[in-house]
Specification:
By secondary structure, this protein is an alpha+beta fold. The chain has 2 domains: about 200 residues, no CATH class; about 100 residues, no CATH class. Helix content is about 25%, strand content about 30%. It has an 8-stranded antiparallel beta sheet, covered by helices on one side. It has a 6-stranded mixed beta sheet with strand order 1-18-4-17-16-11, sandwiched between helices. Strands 12, 13, 14 and 15 form a 4-stranded antiparallel beta sheet that branches. Strand 13 and strand 14 form a beta hairpin. Helix 6 packs antiparallel against helix 7 and helix 7 packs parallel to helix 8. The longest helix has 18 residues. The chain starts with a strand and ends with a helix.
Length: about 375
């Protein structure tokens, strides 16, 4: 594990916006007893097979569970998440364990989840802790029932409250519906659970697919999809809504794409269809379908970094003010098809964006040597971890 561009400092004040500061993969795919620190801008670096994508997959699964998704939606292929050499127990059960730490107004809150993948997919244990205090703990007591026994902290006339919870959903995400908030203990549990849910729900998994970005697209809601298929439609919307951010996008594209770039825009082909073009400034407009894969991925990633929950296809937490939310972008294959010049420009843009506090970025790259000179970048070197 290697952190670049950071020096030891005094403990920082608690952030107003909750964010995940640690990802734990106790037993998940190729990872065993792994603990990864996460900063505002983090890259998992390593050669093929070191577990970069699986780390992002675990993060995304936690995000889905935090948003209230069922277990099968968060883990569509649960057996692939089980460590390869994990042996079944006497009941032929195998599973995996993941967790995270969320820092925010409540302080550091830890969430740990144990999932059974075989013979049936279910949550068999969950623990939510803060300040050395267990706020929620669940356990599978009766395998015949589709429920876990839960106990959460109340600090009232009874120190804990016990009740069954479903075994296919994250108990932490259900607590706001179960806890009344009448005692100080209950309010503490609610605050910790809500901090975790807010941090997990605001996640945008992004992997631009150039083959889907080359053609014209219909006008619809104008929210960017994870594969950036509808990039032209989003450009149609954002160019008129925020001139300042659009100017930043044009400046970035000018630095990352070949040739002269005066503007990046969408042009309407008919009443319902638009395509994206680069305005070369001399009357020539280059359809983005003519760009190379690296240029298209660069354009899409720059657009992601310069937008927010109102533009990206994410589920913002409606009951929490936007100023207190922080969007996390998960970018697998962040460096795919990009040259070093493009990577350095995206790193510069990511640092500036993450410094503002509204966006965090966790990416997976083959090599992060290009980020060595960038301040504020945390690099988790999985090649070094495996030695």
């Amino acid at each position: 594990m290697l952190s670049r561009g950071a020096t030891p400092a005094a403990p920082a004040p608690r952030p107003d916006r909750p964010g995940i500061t640690e990802l734990r993969l106790s037993a998940f795919a190729s990872h065993r007893r792994a603990v990864f620190p996460l900063g505002p801008l983090t890259f998992f670096a390593g050669s093929s097979g070191t577990g970069k994508s699986s780390a992002l997959r675990a993060y995304e699964a936690l995000a889905r569970l935090g948003g209230g998704a069922e277990l099968g939606e968060a883990f569509p292929d649960p057996v692939a998440c089980v460590p390869e050499r994990a042996r079944p127990d006497a009941q032929r059960r195998r599973g995996f364990r993941i967790g995270c730490t969320v820092d925010g107004p409540v302080g550091a809150v830890r969430l740990d989840v144990a999932v059974q993948a075989e013979p049936e997919l279910r949550i068999v244990g969950e623990r939510l802790t803060a300040g050395g205090l267990t706020l929620l703990e669940t356990a599978l007591r009766d395998p015949r029932r589709r429920a876990v026994q839960a106990a959460w902290y109340t600090a009232g006339t009874s120190p804990v409250t016990r009740a069954p919870l479903p075994d296919d959903r994250l108990g932490t995400a259900l607590l706001p519906l179960r806890v009344a908030g009448k005692t100080d203990g209950q309010r503490h549990v609610l605050a910790a659970a809500e901090q975790v849910v807010v941090a997990l729900r605001s996640v945008f998994a992004c992997d631009p697919l150039p083959r889907r970005m080359r053609g014209a697209v219909p006008l619809d809601e104008g929210r960017l999809l994870g594969g950036c298929d509808n990039l032209a439609e989003v450009l149609w919307r954002t160019r008129s809504e925020c001139g300042q951010r659009h100017a930043q996008l044009v400046a970035a594209v000018r630095a990352g794409c070949a040739g002269t770039v005066e503007d990046v825009r969408a042009e309407q082909l008919d009443s319902r269809t638009v395509r994206a073009v680069l305005d070369r400034g001399d009357g020539v407009r280059t359809p983005t379908g003519r760009l190379g894969d690296g240029e298209l991925r660069f354009l899409a990633l720059a657009l992601v970094l310069l937008t927010g929950p109102g533009v990206l296809e994410v589920d913002p937490v409606a009951e929490v003010p936007e100023a207190l939310q922080c969007l996390t972008v998960l970018a697998d294959g962040f460096d795919r098809c990009l040259d070093e010049r493009q990577l350095r420009e995206l790193a510069r843009l990511a640092v500036l964006t993450c410094e503002r506090g509204h966006i965090r970025l966790v990416g997976a790259v083959q090599n992060a040597s290009w980020a060595a000179e960038a301040d504020g970048v945390t690099v988790v070197d999985l090649d070094r971890e495996g030695t």
